[in-house]
Every structure is written in structure tokens, then in C-alpha cells.
């Protein structure tokens, strides 16, 4: 966090120095990528994995507190809504919340997703899984993130 703050402070000071000297800021100096802000880079085309539930391999999280990606095909499960949520049929397992998961067992929802763990009552704000969790795909980032490296 401190490193990120220093980065933003340095960027702010650099842009401020240009602005106070009545110098225009070049379009290459405005963004995080080292290209013009008028460039519109498009990500490479990709397909989500077609594995059925239980057959996918989980990728490493992008950063420490990132919600896990979905390692299987969910095309038959969407849209996920509060009244229609097929994810719960495999992942709502309050008895396993917070415990180590044996291989081949669906990852249980964490304790934070329950309003009452003892009764297994789901927190209503966590009922639409795809608001935070997305199907995973192995793609290269448009801009490298070095802040979360090494965690």
C-alpha cells in the first residue's frame, strides 16, 4: 500500500511540475502504460475453459485478497441471481467453511458468506456469486501489476 501511495504521489508531483511550468502534458505521460492515452489496446481473444465442475485447475489469485476465480464452465448456470443460484448446490457447505478441502471436494463458501454459520443461512448480499467471482482464463495483462508480486 505504501509503495502504491508513493507511486501515485510521484505521478501527481510529476504531472503537477509539468502543469505549474505551463508546459503541456504529453499524452504518453498521462497513463500507467507507456503509450498514448489515445491508443485503445484490445486484449487478445481467449476462451474460458470448458471443464465441467470438479475437473478444472485453479489459478493463483491475482492479489492477496482477490476473490477466487471459477475454475470450471458456468455457461449452464448463468445468470446467477438471488432466486436462481446453482452454485449453492455444490458450494454451500457450512460444515466445511474455514477447513482444509480434500482434493475433488467443491470449495465451500467461506464463513464471511453466511449470516448465520450454525444454521447455514446465506448472507443475502453474497447470493449473486458472479458479482465477485468470474470464470478464469489464462491471459496476459494489458498493464503489468508488480505491487502484488511476491505475496
Q: Give the rounded overall mean pLDDT.
A: 80
What proportion of the residues is helical, as a percent range? 10-25%
For the record, the count of structural domains works out to: 2
- Please give the count of helices: 2
Elements, N to C (H/E): HHEE
* Number of DSSP strand runs: 2
Please report which band the strand proportion falls in: under 5%, 5-15%, 15-25%, 25-35%, 35-45% or over 45%. under 5%
Distance between the termini: 13 Å
Shape: elongated
User: Which oligomeric state applies?
Assistant: single chain
> Can you list the strand order of the major beta sheet?
1-2
Low-confidence stretches: none
For the structure shown, list the relevant keywords.
mainly alpha; single chain; 2 helices; 2 domains; about 150 residues; two-stranded antiparallel sheet
Overview of this protein structure:
With 151 residues, this protein is mainly alpha-helical. The protein has 2 domains: 1-39, no CATH class; 46-136, no CATH class. 15% of the residues lie in helices and 3% in strands. A two-stranded antiparallel sheet has the order 1-2.
Would you kindly provide a brief summary of this structure?
Helix content is 15%, strand content 3%.
Helices, strands, pairings?
Blueprint: H1 2-20, H2 88-91, E1 114-116, E2 121-122
Antiparallel strand pairs: 1-2
Amino acid at each position: 500500500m505504501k509503495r502504491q501511495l508513493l507511486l501515485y504521489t510521484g505521478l501527481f508531483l510529476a504531472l503537477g511540475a509539468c502543469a505549474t511550468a505551463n508546459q503541456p502534458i504529453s499524452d504518453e505521460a498521462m497513463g500507467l502504460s507507456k503509450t498514448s492515452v489515445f491508443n485503445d489496446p484490445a486484449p487478445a481473444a481467449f476462451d474460458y475453459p470448458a471443464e465441467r465442475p470438479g475437473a478444472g485447475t485453479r489459478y493463483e489469485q491475482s492479489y492477496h485478497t482477490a476473490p477466487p476465480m471459477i475454475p470450471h464452465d458456468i455457461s449452464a448456470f448463468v445468470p446467477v441471481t438471488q432466486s436462481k443460484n446453482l452454485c449453492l448446490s455444490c458450494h454451500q457447505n457450512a460444515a466445511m467453511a474455514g477447513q482444509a478441502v480434500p482434493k475433488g471436494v467443491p470449495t465451500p463458501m467461506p464463513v464471511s458468506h453466511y449470516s448465520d454459520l450454525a444454521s447455514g443461512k446465506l448472507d443475502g448480499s453474497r447470493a449473486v456469486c458472479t458479482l465477485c467471482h468470474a470464470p478464469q482464463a489464462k491471459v496476459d495483462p494489458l498493464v503489468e501489476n508488480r505491487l502484488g508480486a511476491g505475496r
